[in-house]
Amino acid sequence: MLRFSCLVFSRGAARRFASSFSSETALPPNLRLPSNLVDPDRLRRPPPPEDSSLPLIRKCDAALPAHLRPVRTWVDTLESKDSEPLGLTELHPDVFAVTPRLDILHAVETWQRNYKRISHANTKVRSEVRGGGRKPWNQKGSGRARHGSIRSPLWRGGGVSHGPRGPKSYYYMLPMKVRVQGLKVALSSKMAQQYLHVVDSLNIPTPDSQYLLELIKSRHWGESVLLVDVSEEFPENILQATENLKTVNLIPAIGLNVHSMLKHEAVILTLDTVRFLEEKLLWHDERYTFLYPLKLPYSDFP
Amino acid sequence: MYKMSVRLLTLRALRGAPGLCRRTPAVTGGFRAAYSAATRDQRSVITESTDEYKFVERLIPPTRIPDPPKHVGVAPSGWIPPAESPPPLPYMIRRSRMHNIPVYSDLTHGNRRLTLVRKVEGDIWALEKDVREYLRQVTGKELPTQVNEVTMTLKVKGHFEQELKDWLASKGF
């Protein structure tokens, strides 16, 4: 998020606009910024204008609230490196333009890290340490301090009095609606920072990793890219191309999560993924509280 | 989908249970032979039908909350529908998922009364100003308010749930 806050205040921009800023918002003079902090080429493509000539490929399926406008983005293609955008698409504002709740993002990210954690740290208590049943010397008369066992926590080699005790689980569940809101906030943040791109499908002409890397470099998508598609079967070419790449990863839409979105700089969704995500995430805004678990049948689910 | 399995209970299953057949052994033997022949004929004509499942299906509840029916003005229960187009104000207050106005009263420590306005979008400070002004006209007192810009909620000291609900409904939210 430092990048987000430094979006406008990069060193180049600071030099241009320093005079127009008041003293509170200008950067301190002794601040050192790396020159590659914000890639200015990435900001070169503005969002599509109102009167764009490209066709609107997809409109929102769900009903929009009356006071909100859909978010419009370009639809690119992976077929060739320097192709123009195919068209425009409309994204639902309740999924891709929600308030940037960083606290919810933090909560969901820490939950994702910790709920699977089982720490196996274990120490022996004085009763579990081998030995130490007998009183080492008489209570009185020996001149030494009084002790009852050689394995008490005071002794070297004795038990630990308040140490970690056995496998401990850090499992907890955040409410479903909080997790859903976390996904929406993550998508909206990526959208707002222009790290989210929509693509018609994940078909590429060659199974060459170099082709993908050059495409990403030429389009200034970022260092790491997460490609999301709806189905779990991906085209062969993209599977082979991303197999040996560490920074470019594939994920099906059901596996989309906040940690992966934060880990990768750019998130690429296909049009089918956008439709799937909108349908699934907007359902939570207008559903009843569950009467019984979802495994049992409901009339309009799944 | 769950298939209906139609199980035919035959007397054959009950045959082993003592005390159910209280007839004399000779009569039961003849009766049993005749009856087993009849059930054998019946069993060869088993029909399995899933048509009756519609009676089960219509009882299964939906997950989506339906849109309320169109009312002109106030509904008989007192529910006021939102305006057709959002009012031209710098803020917007959405309806809850049950299509109600999101104003809630809270009582903590037995004596701390709060009114909470949730689901605010837009300029929350303008809403706070209007709420303070309206409540000053209603009560004559300057009430402390708290704006939370992160969660976009507004808290007012005191119980003013009904007044704020009527006021927001009159505005068209």
CATH superfamily name of the domain at 91-171 in chain B?
SUI1-like domain
In the CATH scheme, the class of the domain at 54-113 and 172-284 in chain A would be Alpha Beta
Radius of gyration of chain A: 28 Å
Main sheet record of chain B = 4 strands, antiparallel
Question: What's the CATH first level of the domain at 91-171 in chain B?
Answer: Alpha Beta
Helical coverage of chain A, percent range:
25-40%
Say how many strands of chain A there are: 9
Helices and strands of chain B, in order, run as HHHEEEEHEEH
- Mean of residue pLDDT of chain B? 84
Low-confidence stretches of chain B: 4-14, 16-21
User: H/E series of chain A, N to C?
Assistant: HHEEEHHEEHEHEHEHEH
The CATH superfamily label of the domain at 54-113 and 172-284 in chain A reads: Ribosomal protein L4/L1
Beta-strand fraction estimate of chain A: 5-15%
Read across the widest sheet of chain A, the strand sequence of neighbours is 1-3-2-6-9-7-8
Number of helices of chain B: 5
Radius of gyration of chain B: 33 Å
Distance between the termini of chain B: 42 Å
Features:
heterodimer, A: 302 residues, alpha/beta, Ribosomal Protein L4, Chain: A, seven-stranded mixed sheet, two-stranded antiparallel sheet, 9 helices, 27% helix, elongated, B: 173 residues, alpha+beta, Translation Initiation Factor Eif1, four-stranded antiparallel sheet, two-stranded antiparallel ribbon
Describe what you observe in this structure.
Chain A has 302 residues and is of the alpha/beta class. Chain A has nine helices and nine strands. In chain A, the strands form two sheets. A seven-stranded mixed beta sheet of chain A has the order 1-3-2-6-9-7-8, sandwiched between helices. In chain A, strands 4-5 form a two-stranded antiparallel sheet. In chain A, helix 7 links the parallel strand 7 and strand 8 (248-252). Chain A is elongated and about 100 Å long. Chain B contains five helices and six strands. Chain B has helices at residues 11-15, 25-43, 54-57, 124-139, 161-171, and strands at residues 91-93, 103-108, 112-117, 120-122, 145-148, 153-157. In chain B, the strands form two sheets. Chain B has a four-stranded antiparallel beta sheet, covered by helices on one side. A two-stranded antiparallel ribbon of chain B has the order 1-4. In chain B, strand 5 (145-148) and strand 6 (153-157) form a beta hairpin. The radius of gyration of chain B is 33 Å and the shape is elongated. The model of chain B is unreliable at 4-14 and 16-21 (pLDDT under 50). The interface between A and B is medium-sized, with 18 and 18 residues. Chain A: This is Large ribosomal subunit protein uL4m. Chain A: One of its GO terms (biological process) is translation. Chain A: GO terms for molecular function: structural constituent of ribosome. Chain A: Its main location: mitochondrion.
